[in-house]
Amino acid sequence: MKAADFIKQLKESANERPKKETLKFFKDDDGETDALELQFGTVFKLAKEFSDMSLSEINKLLDSKY
Asked: What is the DSSP string of the chain?
């Protein structure tokens, strides 16, 4: 299980709502962080599917722009 696969599936599950609506909740804009329009339930379900991901792959997720 790879971090890239997890992010790909997150992107495929994202809503079509404009990101502007979500980004207004971020106080600091670092110019790098991006947001996906996802419900927590979707993220949790996908996280369960990837629960066997190695720590090195999890670190890649933490370093991603999402």
From this structure: --HHHHHHHHHHH---S-HHHHHTT-S---SS-------HHHHHHHHHHTTT--HHHHHHHHHS--
Q: What is the pLDDT of residue 47?
A: 93
> Is there a contact between 15 and 37 (Cβ–Cβ < 8 Å)?
yes
Kindly report, residue by residue over 27-62, the tens digit of the pLDDT.
666 667 667 778 888 889 999 999 999 999 999 999
Q: Which residues of 20-44 are buried (b: 16+ CB within 10 A; e: fewer)?
A: eeeeeeeeeeeeeeeeeebeeebee
What was the pLDDT predicted at 18?
A: 64
The one-letter amino acid at 10: L
